[in-house]
């Protein structure tokens, strides 16, 4: 039996993350449109100078940033879905973390190999990409050094930070853990950081999708769906 | 063959155990008040997880209080619908005739003027009010703790929620008893060392410090204690879920 390219755990949690992240992104943008101004510090409203304003029409009359306020107001279902998707993502992430540690997935597949934990190894792989050099055959069954660092950063830095900054917007969370909000610079700073972290995740997603497209979109998508090795060994030709 | 039968039996048993477990969890959650009144829709699981998690982990936590130096110099005045004729009449008399009625599952129905409330108790706190849209400001809120009012009228043991109504038509909300009896939940009549301005909810506003702005209903005229939210409006708990917003806004 061919060892699967991706384990059932990775495939299952990957696709739940895809669905949750799509829901979070769309609903998050919906919510932003009701007040597309961002601040630094604890408080922020139209009487306070913003750090920056998005050039977007708004969905509410409480804010006028010069582009009208004729967007449909969809905050109700958007926030409900945002939270439901966040719960799904957090619970899935918890399963993935525990199983990933117990099964050795992180240690084996994501922590860069001993000889590769250097900037030189990263630069070398970047140069290979830029020259469009053929990939090392080992890459058909394991991740290269850039993939490993990128996945580790998304799993252990970006997702925890986006969760932390999101929780910081909850009055109950701020009351129970005020230091967790002060560390971020205040409630409005947390909102601004939440926004930028979203774009960091979108930037990762863009690179991720480009790489998949370049290396065979359907082949790699099928591998993530079925777990089948991306390049199965050829069968003998005279098989009946 | 026997393997697949064993697998079938195991799966069946696991499913039965899972269903029983879920049913037991549901019964327990209901008994301990972890299910919000708007839990029936497609977003019910998310709403329920948020509400249950906060009730289990942070039921008695306090909203963050800020130093006086952090009070917002220019708090944002969020417009309401046009004031009613009744309100304007009361305003002309300096709100001396403003009455707050307390009824429902209380030992005795009562009615209070703002002066009566001031005599009942006073709490001042500097907290942030955050709108679901994203903006926020910090103000000093001064008022009578809701718990002091409920102590005065007596609250019957089966009361589980407090429903509160504005002078504005169709503006009403409700909170559970842990929130109602929380020391920071006040009927506010003062702001930043002065009377509460009409624009910010004067003469009387329900200030629920641990929840979003929309739970902080302005121009309160009536409070009802109840064991069930079903008879009110569409039975979802308050006007917010009827408009698509979460009933619980501790977020």
What features would you describe in this structure?
- The complex is a heterodimer of chains A (240) and B (251).
- By secondary structure, chain A is mostly helical.
- Chain A has helices at 8-32, 75-103, 105-110, 119-131, 145-167, 171-176, 178-182, 187-226, and strands at residues 37-38, 52-53.
- Chain A has a two-stranded antiparallel sheet with strand order 1-2.
- Residues 232-240 of chain A have low confidence and may be disordered.
- Chain B is α+β, with helices and mostly antiparallel strands and 251 residues long.
- Chain B has one domain: Oxidoreductase, molybdopterin-binding domain (Sulfite Oxidase, Chain A, domain 2).
- In chain B, a hairpin with a 5-residue loop joins β5 (161-166) and β6.
- The longest helix of chain B has 30 residues, at 2-31.
- Chain B is elongated.
The average pLDDT value of chain B, as a whole number, equals: 94
Q: From the coordinates shown, what is the CATH architecture of chain B?
A: Alpha-Beta Complex
The 3D shape of chain B can be described as: elongated
- Superfamily (CATH H level) name of chain B: Oxidoreductase, molybdopterin-binding domain
Uncertain ranges of chain B: none
What strand line-up does the widest sheet of chain B have?
2-1-10-5-6
Shape of chain A: elongated
Q: What is the total domain count of chain B?
A: 1
Tell me the major beta sheet of chain B: 5 strands, mixed
Question: What is the count of DSSP helices of chain A, taking H or I runs of 4+ residues?
Answer: 8
Largest sheet of chain A: 2 strands, antiparallel
Task: Kindly report the oligomeric state of this protein.
Answer: heterodimer
From the alpha carbons, calculate the radius of gyration of chain A and give it in angstroms.
22 Å
CATH class of chain B: Alpha Beta
The number of helical elements of chain B comes to 7
State the total count of DSSP E strands of chain B: 10
Structural class of chain A: mainly alpha
What share of the residues of chain B lie within helices? 25-40%
Regions of chain A with pLDDT < 50 over 5+ consecutive residues?
232-240
């Amino acid at each position: 039996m061919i060892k699967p390219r991706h384990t059932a755990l990775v495939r299952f949690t990957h696709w739940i993350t895809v669905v949750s992240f799509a829901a979070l992104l769309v609903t998050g943008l919906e919510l932003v449109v009701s007040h597309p101004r961002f601040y630094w510090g604890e408080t922020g409203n139209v009487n306070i100078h913003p750090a920056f304003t998005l050039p977007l029409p708004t969905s509410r009359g409480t804010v006028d940033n010069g582009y009208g306020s004729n967007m449909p107001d969809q905050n109700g279902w958007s926030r409900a879905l945002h939270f439901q998707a966040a719960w799904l993502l957090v619970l899935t992430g918890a399963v993935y973390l525990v199983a990933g540690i117990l099964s050795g997935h992180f240690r084996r597949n994501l922590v860069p190999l001993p000889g590769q934990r250097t900037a030189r190894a990263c630069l070398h792989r970047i140069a290979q990409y830029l020259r469009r050099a053929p990939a090392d055959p080992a890459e058909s069954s394991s991740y290269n050094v850039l993939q490993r660092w990128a996945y580790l950063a998304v799993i252990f830095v970006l997702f925890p930070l986006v969760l932390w900054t999101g929780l910081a917007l909850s009055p109950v969370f701020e009351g129970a853990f005020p230091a967790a909000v002060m560390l971020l610079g205040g409630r409005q700073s947390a909102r601004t950081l939440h926004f930028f972290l979203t774009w960091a995740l979108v930037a990762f997603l863009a690179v991720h999708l480009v790489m998949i497209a370049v290396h065979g979109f359907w082949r790699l998508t099928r591998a993530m769906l079925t777990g089948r090795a991306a390049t199965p060994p050829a069968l003998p030709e005279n098989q009946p | 063959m026997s393997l697949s039968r064993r697998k079938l039996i195991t799966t069946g048993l696991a499913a039965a155990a899972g269903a029983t477990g879920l049913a037991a969890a549901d019964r327990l959650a209901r008994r301990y008040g972890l299910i919000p009144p708007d839990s029936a829709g497609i977003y019910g699981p998310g709403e329920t997880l948020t509400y249950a998690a906060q009730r289990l982990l942070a039921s008695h936590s306090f909203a963050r209080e800020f130093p006086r130096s952090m009070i917002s110099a220019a708090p944002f005045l969020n417009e309401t619908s046009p004031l009613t004729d009744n309100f304007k009449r009361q305003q002309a008399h300096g709100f001396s005739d403003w009455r707050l009625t307390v009824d429902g599952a209380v030992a005795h129905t009562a009615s209070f003027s703002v002066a009566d409330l001031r005599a009942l108790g006073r709490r001042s706190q500097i907290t942030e009010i955050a709108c679901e849209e994203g903006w926020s400001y910090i103000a000093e809120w001064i008022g009578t703790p809701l718990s002091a009012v409920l102590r005065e009228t007596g609250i019957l043991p089966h009361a589980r929620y407090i429903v509160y109504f504005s002078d504005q038509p169709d503006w009403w909300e409700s909170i559970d008893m842990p929130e109602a009896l929380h020391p920071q939940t006040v009927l506010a009549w003062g702001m930043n060392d002065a009377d509460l301005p009409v624009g910010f909810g004067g003469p009387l506003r329900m200030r629920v410090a641990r929840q979003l702005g929309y739970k902080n209903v302005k121009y309160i005229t009536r409070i009802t204690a109840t064991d069930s939210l079903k008879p009110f409006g569409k039975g979802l708990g308050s006007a917010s879920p009827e408009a698509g917003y979460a009933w619980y806004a501790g977020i």
